[in-house]
Write a structure and sequence with these properties.
By secondary structure, this protein is α/β, with parallel strands linked by helices. The chain is built from ten helices and seven strands. It has one domain. The strands form two sheets. A five-stranded mixed beta sheet has the order 2-1-3-7-6, covered by helices on one side. Strands 4-5 form a two-stranded antiparallel ribbon.
């Protein structure tokens, strides 16, 4: 994947090295619930965090470095976030709208305060709609490669673009649309929201080279790596791995095949209009 010469937006809030914060009133039960929600059921951690936020007591916050960090991994995140901003700015402009990028992509270690409650690395990358920030512990890259078998920079870029897709959904009202349909089940609002974010990640992949003048680009193998990452985090795959059976009634993200299909739909057509999972007769 080409990205080293890509533009850097400096929209990174680096909290690494500040140390984990205490759980406060969330308690062990709330943290375990969030971790189980992600690893067993694929539940968006923001959903779980919102559910336990009322128990959190006094919120703790951290303030990190803002800008472009010097290490390569963080610079990669910065370039991909800036690339998504360029792509979605173009797509919004074509529709007579102005795109507002996320407030920041927050890099952290172990745990950190968020607008949705306590964020923990065990939850994986997530987007918090309350503060409009993406949260990422870079240790997830090792898990993505080691546990999920989805290594490579393109797989990492897919993850970032997917989370940015959730920000696009908030801006366009899709998040609220999903909330009205429920959070679990094979055709739930949550599944439709996650599959749409996969499709939006594909839209980014389709336009990244064009918008950046070739500075950020994905070839056929990179798209395959993105598809592999999408497949690795399907509800059926995760449930089979963690509990030995598949329970469609508890789906929140969609099957591996569905996640690959919607990512590919975005990557092939490059049109956000092709990503309306809420109207799709077949997910």
């Amino acid at each position: 994947m080409r990205w080293q010469d890509g533009d850097r937006g400096g929209n990174i809030e680096d909290r690494r090295g500040l140390g984990p914060i205490a759980a406060g009133g969330v308690g062990v039960g709330g943290i375990v619930l969030a971790a189980i929600g992600y690893f067993v059921f694929g539940i968006d951690p923001a959903t779980t965090l919102n559910a336990v936020k009322d128990q959190a007591g006094q919120e703790q916050s951290q303030e990190g470095f803002h800008g472009t960090p010097k290490d390569l991994d963080a610079q990669f995140v910065d370039v991909i976030e800036q690339s998504t901003t360029a792509v979605w700015s173009q797509e919004f402009k074509a529709r007579g709208r102005i795109y507002q990028r996320p407030a920041a992509v927050v890099l952290y270690d172990q745990s950190t305060g968020t607008g949705c409650g306590l964020g923990q690395s065990a939850m994986g990358p997530f987007y918090c709609p309350s503060d409009e920030k993406v949260y990422l512990d870079l240790a997830f890259w090792q898990e993505l490669s080691g546990r999920f078998g989805a290594g490579g920079e393109a797989a990492r870029a897919y993850v970032i673009a997917h989370e940015i897709g959730h920000h696009v959904q908030k801006l366009t009202g899709q998040t609220q649309r999903a909330e009205r349909l429920g959070a679990r089940g094979a055709t739930s609002g949550s599944v439709r929201l996650e599959l749409q974010a996969d499709c939006y990640a594909g839209v980014w992949a389709a336009h990244a080279s064009e918008v950046s003048g070739g500075k950020v680009s994905l070839d056929t193998k990179d798209i395959e790596d993105g598809l592999r990452a999408a497949s690795a985090v399907g509800d059926d795959t995760l449930q089979q791995e963690t509990q030995g059976r598949v329970a469609p009634d508890s789906f929140t993200h969609g099957t591996s095949q569905q996640r690959m299909r919607w990512f590919q739909a975005g990557a092939q057509g490059g049109d956000p209009a092709d990503c309306d999972t809420f109207k799709a007769a077949r997910l």
